[in-house]
Amino acid sequence: MAADLGELLVPYMPTIRVPRTGDRVFKSECAFSFDSPESEGGLYVCMNTFLGFGREHVERHYRKTGQSVYMHLKRHVKEKATGAAGGAIPRRRNGKVFLDLELNRDFNGEDYEYEDEAKLVIFPDHFEIPLPNIEELPALVTIACDAVLNAPSAYKKQEPESWEEEIQVSRHARSLRQLDNGVRIPPSGWKCQKCELRENLWLNLTDGAVLCGKWFFDGSGGNGHALEHYRETNHPLAVKLDTITPDGADVYSFEEEEAVLDPHISEHLSHFGIDMLQMQKRTENGHHTDNNSRPRVSEWEVIQESGMKLKAVFGSGYTGIKNLGNSCYLGTVLQVLFIFYINYFCINFHSDKGVSPRMLKSLVSRGHPEFSSNRQQDAHEFLLHIINLVERNSAGSENPSDVFRFLVEERVQCCQTRRVRYTQRVDCCIQLPAPIEAATNREELLAYEAKRKEAEENMRAPPEPVRARIPFTACLQAFTEPENVPDFWSSALQAKSAGVKTSRFTSFPEYLIVQVKKFTFGVDWVPKKLDLAIDVPDFLDLNRLRATGLQAGEEELPDLMPPIVLPEDTRAPEIDETAVMQLAEMGFPLEACRKAVYYTGNMGPEMAFNWIIAHMEEPDFAEPLLLPSMMDPGPSTSDSPLGTAPLGSSPPEESIAILTSMGFPRNHSIQALKATNNNLERALDWIFTHPEEEESDAVSDMADTEPNDNAFSNANSHSDSTLSPDRDTTGPRVKDGPGRYELFAFISHMGASTMSGHYVCHIKKEGRWVIYNDHKVCLSERPPKDLGYIYFYHRLSSS
């Protein structure tokens, strides 16, 4: 038999590889679906590429690549047999589990056991060889199979063992001297004694001083007063106040410069009147909450419909998405978008246990610094990311994102001359402001604020929070009001002037996305959520917000660009000669090096080197550096009737040079600058969201310099383009229709910030609301429409 197996595998030996260091073995999820070893058909791992495939996709991979040998992995989950007394019969649980996979959280109790099965499968005849089969298989195949079985999952977090340092007991813990100064710490209302910060507070265990910690790169933390106090007093140990629980607390030793253990922490805290048994750690889903705010128990209960007997549902369209750890933002957005992208992603799955989105997350977040991390993210930002990603990858085919796109008309008026300019752009989401001043319970909010300040001053527990109730009509009113345009340049006056801007719908999308601006930035620049409820309607009529275009009697602003202001100092610019010489030593012409350093803004030899590589083929590469102040004056801008450059003029060469030095084509860079009014930062964003092969020729030449920070979404990929369904065939196709809508889904957020908390979504299917809470899917009894963050409407027919 051994000889037979050896001879059978000989033709396939060149295609069987042993995983090397750095190879990732995808043995937990299919590359094209949500199939896993726990699925009915198991998972097939290619023995050459180590990619995993479900039963429906492995045949396609075989036909396309010719790879014939796969390892079939199957995990069986079953209930343990019960004994005579009704209890589970004890078994060696790990005896039949050899796959390095995460255990399913739904079957992780004592009543279930796992059994793993592995075998080699040879296509196309599906010849199966059970594993392990060491004696009968060739040595190379045995080594390869053993390596695949023992390889960690490609998604399993790998951390160097050297980083897993055990926290040691502080040498100051046993002999810590505590001052008998009568200090008593209240159970809440803490603030730094020097700067009155109310977060990241540390209690010095010697004298009871409450001071703030160090400042962190993300804007959180404090002003470092706890460390300053140690330097002044040499009191070594401090405990973080909001980490004290009956199980312990976070203790830091300033003298040892590391986190430490304090076996006597209970005694040390009781010296200042703190009873550890009465303390509870203030966290939400493992994230910090401010020590002066109460847990949002009511919000969490209402949104998740806790306390209600919800009926679980499953099947096609009712399958949950497992939380990978801070990935609920992804799961809720995908649940809604699957309605539109089901054919795009080739999605067809149903499971009562939920599916893991690891492979999908890896695909859609590739190259993104935030979405590829394991940190919590803003669901709205991820939604726009997915819409743009699908659009960029739909070139030459039907784009599912077209159903969200609509045209926005922006009307800018010069307040002094009353002349106007109308422009259009494409967007996919409207952002509604939430005017707190319009709250129907304004008096109640003012009373709460007064009580809160009084509690802070007297170091008492804060009062019960009051949620602002804002009418949806007030949000729409704030959305339609004119807004001031900062640094507005009037082409009629040829000078800066006051300007106002209003936005209206030129077209209405098939599906309307509405985001409520619930988040703001605190004094520490950390995003914080406004606690408010909005009576969002089931039916919405926006026809009165349709754009009207240029009206009779209105006079347009001239199509002129702001003049290029040259510095008064006409001396030669300063150039980093050190960087020039470093480049010249590489053998490049001296004048070319000077131009490279100048056009990259003295940003260093590396950037200048990139500029040189990008411009080496140009005929004037080694010509002397010529600047506007060093050239012949030529025709003055004052010769023009209005003294300004026409719209068709080329962007500044310096800006073009900076973009080309980064590796972008010159034509693409010029088009990006023209589309963004020569704004470098916006031009970079334009380039990344407008791949060269998908560029649109219909780019608006904006004469008036107003930022795109209105109530529509700014994160879309065509926010600077003037597109219309009739003129542009390469950009998104805009479908117009009546502005009457019905609510069919909404995403809700629980927690104090986008950096923490939890997301769930409600979707109306078959006339009933369904709640999707990670892998759990149930019929909703009381959908909390007033607490949503992102709302989805579909257009009603004109009949």
Question: Which strand-content bin applies to the residues?
Answer: 15-25%
Task: Give the C-alpha Rg.
Answer: 32 Å
What do we call the CATH homologous superfamily of the domain at 311-398 and 736-795? Cysteine proteinases
- Binned, the helix content reads 10-25%
- Mean pLDDT level: 78
Rough outline: globular
CATH class category label of the domain at 311-398 and 736-795: Alpha Beta
Question: Which spans of ≥5 residues are poorly predicted at pLDDT below 50?
Answer: 83-95, 105-109, 157-164, 280-297, 629-648, 693-709, 714-731
Indicate the CATH architecture of the domain at 311-398 and 736-795.
Alpha-Beta Complex
**What name does the CATH topology of the domain at 311-398 and 736-795 carry?**
Cathepsin B, Chain A
Straight-line N-to-C gap = 74 Å
Would you write up a description of this structure?
With 799 residues, the protein is of the alpha+beta class. The chain has 17 helices and 30 strands. α7 runs parallel beside α9 (379-392), α15 packs across α16 and α16 (666-675) crosses α17 (680-689). The chain is globular and about 90 Å long. It starts with a helix and ends with a strand. The model is unreliable at 83-95, 105-109, 157-164, 280-297, 629-648, 693-709 and 714-731 (pLDDT under 50). It catalyses: Thiol-dependent hydrolysis of ester, thioester, amide, peptide and isopeptide bonds formed by the C-terminal Gly of ubiquitin (a 76-residue protein attached to proteins as an intracellular targeting signal). It is an enzyme of class 3 (hydrolase). Keywords: Autophagy, Hydrolase, Metal-binding, Protease, Repeat, Thiol protease, Ubl conjugation pathway, Zinc, Zinc-finger.
